[in-house]
Amino acid sequence: MISLAPLMVALALGQTDPYVRSRVDAGDTNTQCLYWTATRVTWQQSSYGNPATQGETEFDAMRRSFQSWQNIFTQCGNLVLEEGPRVADREVGYKREGDNRNLVLFRDRDCNTVVSATDACWDDDTCANKFDCWEDDDNTIAITLTTYDERSGIIYDSDISFNAARFAFTTADGTACFPPVTTNCVATDVQNTATHEIGHFIGLDHTRATGSTMNPSAPPGEVSKRTIDTGSHDFVCAVYPKGQASQACLHPAAEQELGPKASTGCAATGPSALLPALAAWALWLVRRRRDEVSR
Ligand SMILES: [Zn+2]
């Protein structure tokens, strides 16, 4: 998907609903919504962290963001977001074989400065993984890359990348500051950014609703998205209702057929539990989609 598509669609429609679900085709309500059907989803932080952020505070900030969502799931939802061990992994995207992970990582090198302009990776969007660099738009603070089944909308994998090549990520409270000053103040807040991106991770698109965590822009110094708004809260309760199956938007029967198959394959938790049943489709139907928060 084109990285700016969700933002532009939201702007074009003047979308101000309390929450907007992500779709197989962004903004097209004739297509299925994206959502997890697993009951536990494990996410993992790349152990590299972000050296430019003070100490190891970025890891804790990330955990607080997931916890904010988890608090809502515990109250009215059906999903457990569980942190797995830190890993050396630097590759985002969905791996059909091997260790697929829902990875959270910072990229602190700009691909434009470390990759030759003639490298083939530019054509197939593989520079980020190949050279461990930030490949997307310069003004994009972070991106959530979601891999999902095109027919059912079921999410297989979601990975969050932070643009540390361009933005100074901080974890402190206080007034806004601008690099090179980043001590005891807020430049680009990790928790603010992560809370927004996790919204994408669980199937939210942007909305211009006042005060929404899913507002597509974030000025320097902003921390308000750390606190999840009532619209996004309601999304969790409605789409992932406690004691019930996660809610599709269209053709709910299709997912019910997949459910039992998924449980027969392996004992792994999270999205990997879906792999045995869905691998056969994956070549044809899996699509990737990027959602970002811009400056
Ligand atoms: Zn976004």
The amount of helix comes to 25-40%
- Largest sheet, strands/sense/barrel: 6 strands, mixed
Q: How many DSSP E strands? A: 10
Mass-distribution shape: globular
Q: Structural class, judged by helices and strands?
A: alpha/beta
Low-confidence stretches: 1-10, 253-285
**Second-tier CATH architecture:** 3-Layer(aba) Sandwich
What would you say this structure looks like, in words?
The protein is 29% helix and 18% strand. It is α/β, with parallel strands linked by helices. It has a single domain, classed as Collagenase (Catalytic Domain) (3-Layer(aba) Sandwich). β2 (40-45), α2 (57-76) and β3 form a beta-alpha-beta unit. Mean pLDDT is 84; it is low at 1-10 and 253-285. It binds zinc ion (ZN). Zinc ion binds at residues 196, 200, 206, 216, 291-293. Residues 196, 200, 206, 216, 291-293 line the site of zinc ion.
State the main characteristics.
six-stranded mixed β-sheet; 18% strand; disordered N terminus; alpha/beta; binds zinc ion; globular; 295 residues
Topology:
Layout: H1 5-13, E1 20-21, E2 40-45, H2 57-76, E3 80-83, E4 102-107, H3 111-114, H4 127-131, E5 140-149, E6 155-163, E7 169-170, E8 188-189, H5 190-201, E9 204-205, H6 230-239, H7 252-265, H8 275-285, E10 286-294
Parallel strand pairs: 2-3, 2-4, 4-6, 7-8
Antiparallel strand pairs: 1-9, 5-6, 5-10
Helix pairs in contact: 2-5, 7-8
Bound molecules: zinc ion (ZN).
